[in-house]
Specification:
The complex is a heterodimer of chains A (846) and B (354). With 846 residues, chain A is α+β, with helices and mostly antiparallel strands. Chain A is built from 31 helices and 15 strands. In chain A, the strands form four sheets. In chain A, strands 3, 4, 6, 7, 8, 9, 10, 11 and 12 form a nine-stranded mixed sheet that branches. A two-stranded antiparallel ribbon of chain A has the order 1-2. The two termini of chain A are 50 Å apart. The mean pLDDT of chain A is 92. Chain B has 354 residues and is mainly alpha-helical. Classes of the chains: A alpha+beta (846), B mainly alpha (354). At the A-B interface, helix 2, helix 3 and helix 4 of A face helix 2, helix 3 and helix 10 of B.
Chain lengths: 846, 354
């Protein structure tokens, strides 16, 4: 924000600092441990009166001098140059906080140089006593350098009380100072042994070589045991946030953690083997293998330590984007482009959107990401996203992915950045044009109010079924089978619902041809489960039109049509990549499925990708219970809806209540328009009833709060929703839903537009199971299906969403609206017997 | 674009800026002396090898170069640290603008450093490569000097900063600054002068220990010193002429000190030149050290004047914490004592063997 950003492209994402830092840290630890190695080995030579050992020490000192003083010293300077280039604000903060610590370290550095030069150049030239004093002074200065640097480095990871008092000493002697100091000291001694191998395997005299290799083996193995003890202490001293970041929250840490754990016994075993095996070729190879293992060991540790700070450069104080935590709210309010200094496009215009997005990317993304490089490459991530998915991801950063900082910009900046990252950054990205929807003509069936004795009312229990087409995608995350319901009403001044001696059948055209069946009589209605999931129509169409026919005593008495919303527009690809499988409009592709499963495997230690690769279909509800499919969760696992919403709420921010459309088929820019009822016509959104995604997820997670990862996921969502977590009422998916009467109290016009947080109790309270006060007619028979309440209309046509009202009363409004009681009663009625207000004139006309 | 908007906000200080200014000035002076010895001696040996004068002077210099590199780097760390405390918000910005070159310094220095070890440890074995290797050392050190000169001038050349928007890859140099090359030339000639005087001083020690051939080498060193110093009066004048008007007009705060130290430094340089031409080594050394110290102060005042339109050190906010400073001063004193102790330990060792 304060400084220009060096555009590094492939060398970004920490590649540069990793290259320089790991090499330097390896050598600089050698510079400490190797110092002690020199004096102890020289003392051994003197004690044993062994000119051979002393000569080995002298030669090792020369190697030590050339490596540590030249390469070690300069790569140390290089680290400072590098961090100042990559994070000038962070470096400036460190310099200003610890300037005198650095100055003290410089004095020790001076002491090291003088001592080491004198030590090497006076070998065999001054008394042993004085020579050893020089060696000890060197080691003392080197270890004190480590002492000082350790304080500053661990301050970045665990600043502790410094955050409250800004006191130099609080920051320096921070919570992990002492364990880190011991850890690094033992590491330094161990590394001295590893470097000792490199020189001792070249001793010409075999007996001496064997002796010194064994001696170096001790230097490797003894500190290693102590190092592991101090590692546990180090871990225990880490505050919970940093511990979680290293050991669980950040999947990127896993390889380094594994590497560290596995290399420990390898090093120990290698040390033992080197001491035992005598053949020179084997020993020499072993020395280099151990040396490289030590390098990996060091690198793994440093990556973990650095990773533990995420998303900060100085924990809990300065984000990796160089924005101070305390400044974030102000920056979010004003915007990054207005706040940052090195910005060309302060205002976003139509002409500069991509350029402004690029500047935002430079300021906010490039501090951690490379473009096309080996570390933290943005390109494969960006390739997966659509602009909409990316925008939601950006806005939700830092929630379930706590290694990312919260997005620092405004909503407009999130949109612009998302556009750049997807359409500007990714080579060859072809922006998806809003699909053209051709209106369909479906004429309502005829109905003669004068002669018809019956009316048939029918529809699915849910407004829209979402299908992942398991046989094609390889993942089955579809809803339970659609249920078709119908009520046959005998028209009369006192009408009745007919079940006896009546049959209702259906037929509808699907992608696999015509399917047909009979609805079974239930308590007050007929019902059929479309057990075999219908295949979507080709070309893409997000619904079927079912034709229903009622017979009484073998005679056809009524026919009607019902729209069954059935969409394959399941939006995983917005964030998981891949293309639409069908017509560029719908269908989960196998490419998308593969990414989803890989992500699941990475985060939950599963091997679903293997099953998928073997051609098996992964059925989500086989582990995560799904009420709509009648399955139970495996022990310790969340229900499917809870897992899906609970997990994704941390990644996809509520962008004004429309984030549902990223996954569900409700987006205005999509092709299904599954939410098209009267509430949509009134510009209400999903969140008016279901809550924003976070609140929605919280309600589900609270219901399963004791299960699996619920507590962890809830912790991510703390303070992220519009409602405080404590006030959100728990609910079970599919069973406890928003209640219409929350807004329409006593069936009256609403006084609020928020139905969230008051749930129906049990299945009987669900809209599609409810009946009016007369106890005969299902709410859905007159009002249509949830999400498609009459008058429903979308870009496929106005009549398709209201086929039955149009058939029976030539208007799209709920059945019997505008005092149209005659549709069943054959005459006008004076009492609103179905519910209060049922005789009122329909309010929300076009 | 208003370049002033690009200047970052500085961080707060723990003690008043004057402390850092004193530490910066003193440690930079130490760095400057050793660095000039290194660069100057490297250039002189190279020129001597080119001229076919591969005498003992070259060998003596070769043997000392690795130490000089070590201390040049060490003495460079401290002023760089204190510079960052006061002027970090300028320097970090300019460093990013020329990041590729700036970061390459350490790689180049590694090559130079190893070059000096190859040159010194194998002097007799690589006779045929003396010119190449000394040229390599001098060339790489010159490259480092040029990069540093670029950065230290770019950090005060705020008007050049908007060039970043056309080149954010870190490959900018401050070539548009008319003072860049005169400044560089002035520095390099100064280094050669110091290098020459170092050779003279080294042989002056030898002469006092009875080395009869030292006199000739003193003359050699003094010739280099005098020649480079004379040329440097011209380069210094050129440098003065290339400075921004805001500095040259002497109207800014501290201009009087700026002028005073220029005059004092020039007078000291004239004295050192006179002593040099008379082969009076030690008076020349003292005069030159005085001149160098004055020029260090001139440099500090020039930076203040150049940045005056945008920044004053007195504007820096201080949130006092003195205990770290006190500890540093104690450690610094102890460190100097330790260095003295170690040298004494070696020098007074009764078993010392050749």
């Amino acid at each position: 924000m304060n400084y220009p950003v060096w555009l590094l492209d492939v060398f970004g994402g920490g590649t540069l600092i990793a290259l320089i830092a790991v090499v330097h840290v390896y050598v600089s630890h050698f510079a400490v441990g190797g110092g002690l190695f020199l004096v102890i080995t020289e003392m051994k030579g003197l004690r044993e009166n062994s000119p051979a050992i002393l000569e080995y020490t002298r030669k090792h000192a020369r190697f030590f001098l050339l490596l540590t003083m030249v390469f070690g010293g300069l790569t140390g300077v290089a680290i400072w140059f590098t961090i100042a280039l990559l994070s000038p604000s962070g470096t400036s903060s460190l310099i200003h906080t610890f300037v005198f610590a650095w100055a003290i370290e410089w004095v020790f550095f001076l002491g090291e140089i003088v001592a080491l030069l004198l030590y090497y150049y006076t070998f065999n030239k001054i008394s042993s006593r004085n020579h050893l004093i020089l060696g000890w002074i060197y080691f003392g200065c080197a270890w004190l350098s480590l002492f000082v640097i350790n304080g500053v480095i661990d301050y970045m990871l665990t600043p502790g009380e410094w955050l409250n008092n800004n006191n130099f000493w609080s920051g320096f002697f921070n919570p992990t100072f002492w364990p880190a100091l011991f850890f690094r000291t033992f590491l330094a001694l161990m590394i001295a042994g590893l470097f000792g191998f490199l020189t001792s395997v070249n001793i010409k005299d075999e007996a001496m070589r064997h002796k010194m290799v064994r001696y170096c083996g001790l230097w490797l193995m003894a500190p290693l045991v102590l190092l592991l003890g101090s590692a546990l202490w180090y871990k225990a001293a880490l505050p919970p946030a940093q511990q979680e970041m290293i050991f669980s929250a950040s999947p990127e840490m896993k390889p380094f953690l594994t590497c560290f754990v596995f290399i420990s016994p390898l090093l120990f075993g290698g040390g033992l083997l080197s001491a035992v095996l005598r053949p020179q070729a084997v020993r020499r190879s072993m020395a280099w293998i151990l040396f490289l293992l030590g390098f990996l060991y060091m690198g793994s540790f440093e990556f973990m330590r650095e990773g533990g700070r995420r998303p900060y450069i100085i924990h809990d104080y300065m984000y990796s984007t160089s924005i101070l935590k305390a400044d974030l709210p102000e920056v979010q309010k004003k915007g990054v482009l207005q706040t940052a200094r090195w910005v060309k496009n302060r205002e976003v215009t139509r002409e500069n959107r991509l350029a402004a997005g690029a500047e935002l990317s430079t300021i906010l993304c490039l501090p951690c990401h490379s473009t096309g490089g080996p570390l933290n490459d943005m390109l494969p991530i960006a390739r997966r996203f659509t602009p909409q998915g990316m925008e939601a991801f950006i806005s939700g950063m830092g929630t379930a992915n706590p290694y990312m900082p919260p997005f620092a910009g405004t909503r407009e900046e999130a949109v612009v950045l998302a556009e750049y990252l997807t359409t500007g950054l990714v080579p060859g990205f072809i922006p998806a044009l809003p699909p053209a929807i051709a209106p369909l003509t479906v004429a309502p069936l005829p109905f003669d109010p004068e002669t018809s004795e019956y009316i048939l009312l029918a529809g699915p229990t849910i407004g829209n079924f979402l299908s992942s087409e398991p046989e094609k995608s390889g993942i089955d995350m579809s809803y339970g089978s659609p249920v078709l319901r119908a009520q046959l009403i005998f028209r009369d001044t006192s009408p009745s619902v007919i079940l006896d001696d009546a049959t209702v059948s259906y037929r509808m055209q699907t992608g696999k041809g015509m399917i047909e069946g009979v609805l079974a009589a239930q308590d007050g209605y007929f019902e059929a489960v479309l057990a075999e999931m219908p295949t979507p129509l080709q070309p893409f169409q997000p619904f079927f039109i079912a034709e229903l026919q009622a017979e009484v005593k073998g005679k056809v008495v009524a026919v009607t049509q019902a729209k069954i919303g059935f969409s394959t527009e399941i939006g995983c690809r917005n964030c998981h990549g891949g293309r639409w499988r069908q017509d560029g409009r719908g269908g989960l592709s196998r490419a998308t499925a593969a990414t989803i499963l890989a992500s699941h495997d990475k985060r939950s230690n599963t091997s679903l990708s293997v099953d998928f690769a073997e051609g098996k279909t992964v059925v989500c509800s086989s582990c995560h219970g799904d009420f709509s499919r009648g399955t139970e969760s495996k022990a310790g696992l969340l229900g499917l809806s809870t897992a899906m919403h609970g997990f994704h709420a941390g990644f996809v921010a509520d962008s004004e209540g429309d984030s549902c459309g990223l996954c569900h088929s409700t987006s205005d820019t999509g092709v299904s328009h599954s939410f098209d009822g009267i509430h949509k016509q009134l510009d209400l959104s999903c969140s008016n009833c279901h809550g924003g995604l976070v609140d929605h997820a919280v309600s589900l997670l609270k219901q399963e709060a004791e299960t699996g990862q619920a507590a962890k996921l809830l912790s991510y969502l703390q303070d992220k929703g519009e409602m405080t977590i404590d006030y959100v009422n728990p609910r079970s998916a599919w069973v406890m839903e928003p209640d219409c009467l929350t807004c329409h109290v006593e069936f009256q016009p609403p006084e609020t537009d928020t139905a969230f947080n008051a749930w129906t109790e049990g299945e009987e309270g669900l809209f599609h199971n409810r009946m009016g006060e007369a106890g005969a007619v299902l709410c859905s028979s007159c009002h249509g299906q949830p999400h498609s309440l009459y008058p429903a209309a979308n870009r496929y046509g106005k009549e398709i969403g209201a086929l039955q009202p149009m058939q029976y009363q030539k208007s799209p409004y709920p059945l019997a609206a505008d005092k149209g009681c005659a549709v069943c009663h054959t005459v006008e009625m004076e009492f609103d017997m179905h519910h209060p207000g049922s005789l009122a004139t329909f309010r929300n006309r076009e | 674009m208003n370049a002033a908007q690009l200047i970052p906000t500085p961080d707060v200080l723990q003690v008043p800026w004057g402390w850092f200014q004193v530490l910066l000035t003193v440690t930079f002076f130490l760095h400057l002396v050793v660095m000039n010895m290194l660069l100057g001696c490297s250039l002189i040996t190279f020129f001597r090898h080119v001229a076919g004068k591969s005498t003992g002077v070259n060998k003596a210099i070769a043997g000392k170069l690795p130490f000089t590199v070590a201390f040049t780097i060490n003495f460079g760390v401290a002023p760089l640290l204190f510079l960052q405390v006061i002027y970090g918000h300028f320097m970090y910005a300019s460093s990013v603008l020329m990041a590729v070159y700036w970061l390459s310094i350490f790689a180049i220095l590694i090559f130079s450093y190893y070059g000096t070890y190859i040159y010194s440890m194998n002097y007799e074995k690589i006779v045929d490569f003396h010119t190449v290797i000394s040229g390599f050392i001098a060339g790489t050190l010159l490259a480092v000097a040029f990069i540093i000169t670029n950065n230290l001038s770019l950090m005060t050349n705020i008007e050049a900063w908007p060039a970043y928007f056309n080149n954010p890859q870190g490959t900018l140099l401050n070539l548009s600054d008319p003072s860049l090359f005169p400044r560089f030339l002035h520095s390099v000639l100064g280094a050669i002068a110091v290098g020459g005087l170092t050779i003279a001083l080294y042989y002056d020690f030898k002469k006092r220990k009875g080395d009869t051939e030292a006199e000739e080498n003193i003359r050699t060193g003094m010739k280099w010193f005098a020649g480079a110093t004379m040329l440097n009066f011209g380069a210094g004048t050129l440098y003065w002429g290339s400075l921004p008007e805001s500095v040259r007009l002497l109207t800014g705060e501290g201009s009087i000190f700026f002028l005073f130290f220029i005059v004092l430094g020039s007078v000291a340089a004239i004295f050192s030149l006179i002593y040099g031409m008379r082969y009076q080594v030690r008076p020349a050394v003292y005069s030159l050290l005085g001149s160098l110290f004055c020029m260090v102060l001139v440099r500090e005042f020039a930076r203040r004047l150049a940045l005056a339109p945008w920044f004053k050190t007195s504007d820096l906010v201080v949130v006092p914490q003195y205990s770290p400073l006190i500890l540093f001063l104690i450690v610094f004193a102890a460190g100097l004592w330790l260095v003295w102790y170690m040298i004494r330990l070696v020098v007074t060792d009764k078993e010392v063997r050749s």
